[in-house]
Amino acid sequence: MKIVADKKSLLELTLPDGGSFACSNIDDAYRFCQKIAKAHYENFPVGSVLIPQETRKYFYSVYSFARIADDIADELAFSDTEQRVQALQSFLAILTVDEDSHLTNPIAMALRDTMKAKDIPIAPFEKLIAAFISDIRFVQPATFYESLTYCANSANPIGELVLRLFGEYNQQTMLYSDAICTGLQLVNFWQDISVDVPKGRIYIPKDICDKYSLDFSDFPNNLDDKNFEKSLEEIYNFTNNFFLFGKNLINCLIAKRLKLEIAITLESGLKILEKLKNLEINVKHKRVTLNKGDFPTILYRAIRYHLL
Asked: Of 70-79, 112-121, 216-225, 232-241, which range is least confident?
C-alpha cells in the first residue's frame, strides 16, 4: 500500500474511489490512515501513548483528513489557486457521497466509520476546509475579531474532535477547549513572524499595525523597535488570556489520560509564549520552537499546576 508522494496522488484522494489508493475493506482503510499519521506526526496527539489503544484508529482517520487537506492547500502549486479550492471542496464532498455509491477512498471509508462510531457531525470538517481555503485566499485580518474567526475554523474543530473521540464533548468543555485551541493558533502566528512576513502573510491585525505604526514593507528594516515591542506585548497578553480561561477544561474532564494530554498541550503553548516574550523584538529574525530540553519543564508544570 503506497503513501501519498506527489500532487497526482493528492488529487486521487479527493475522489470517492481513491484512485490508486482504493481499499476494499475498512481495516485496510484504517491502516492507510495510520501510516499517514505516523509519517507526518506534528501537533496532533495521534501518536501519544496517552491515547487508549482502542481509540487510536479513530485519531488516525481524523488526522489523515486534516493532513491531506493541508497538503492540498500547500503543495498543489496550481497557477490558478481556485483549483486548490476546488480540490479541497471535492475532498470534503467524499464524506457525504451516497452510501450506495462505490466508495473505496481509504480516508473517506475510515473517517465515515469514525463519524458513525463516535457520533461526530460533519461541521468540524467543514470548518477545517474553510480554514484551508482562507489560507489559500489569505488576507491580513483587519481586527482580532477576524483572527478569532479564522481560529474558530482552523484550530477549535481539532479540540472538538479530540473531545468527541474521548466522549467528553459538551457545551462547557467546548468553551474551554475553544479557548486553548485559539491560544495555540495565535501562538503559532506569532512564532512564525520571521517566516511569514517575508512571504506576505501578516497575521498581526491591521488595527494593531496602525495603532503602533508598524511598517512591514521592508521587513525587518522598517520596523520601529519600541513600537514593535509594544505591539508584541499587546498581542501576547491577548493570547495569554485564552490560556488562562481554557485551563479550566482540565478540571471538567473525566479521562485521566486526556487530562494529562490537555495539560501538556496547554503548557506547551505557554512555554512557546514564554520563549517569545524572552526573545523580545528578535522574533522578527528567529522562529521560536520547543526542543527536547523543554519537555521536563512542560511535564512538571502540567502535573504540578493542573493535576495535583
From this structure: 70-79
Residue 219 in contact with residue 198, Cβ under 8 Å? yes
Helix axes 53-75, 156-165, angle to 10 degrees: 160
Q: What would the mean pLDDT of 44-54 be, rounded to a whole number?
A: 66
In this chain, the answer to whether the domains covering 1-124 and 138-308 adopt an identical fold is yes
Distance of CA 249 to the CA centre of its chain: 18
Cis peptide before 141 (omega within 30 of 0): no
0.70 surpassed by pTM: yes
| CATH T-level fold of 138-308 | Farnesyl Diphosphate Synthase (1.10.600)
Q: How many CB atoms lie within 10 A of CB 98?
A: 8
Please name the helix (run of DSSP H) or strand (run of DSSP E) that holds residue 219, with its range, or none.
none
Q: Which helix (H) or strand (E) holds 254?
A: none
Q: How many degrees, rounded to 5, is the angle at CA 58 between CA 53 and CA 64? A: 120
Q: Hey, what's the cell of 286?
A: 528567529
Q: Is the pLDDT of residue 300 over 90?
A: yes
Query: How is domain 1-124 classified at the architecture level of CATH?
Result: Orthogonal Bundle (1.10)
What does 102-170 look like in DSSP terms, one character per residue? ----HHHHHHHHHHHHTT--SHHHHHHHHHHHHHHT----SSHHHHHHHHHHHTHHHHHHHHHHTT---
In the chain, where are the structural domains located?
A: 1-124, 138-308
Integer Cα distance of 241 and 207 in angstroms: 19
CB 110 within 8 A of CB 26: yes
